[in-house]
Design brief:
5 strands, single chain, 37% strand
Amino acid sequence: MKFTDVAVNRAERFSIGVEEGARRFYVSIPVRNEYADYEECYEITKEAYELYKMDLNNALEFVDKCRSRQVDDLLIQKSGRLRGAPL
């Protein structure tokens, strides 16, 4: 899988992009566990991607759901037992 960020909101700490292999769209947030910092990527529709790309503030409600683990079914790579906490 190759994840390519298209837009980054540094203040709110998230990005949107395209997973090149399957042409899936995603929102990613940084997380940290006791061993590493990494990103969790959540799949979004092309329509959501286009909306968020126009104005990243449109994604804030979805990003909050990602951080509070309300949309874990949309994780592109499922977490293991040492899942990190959002930064």
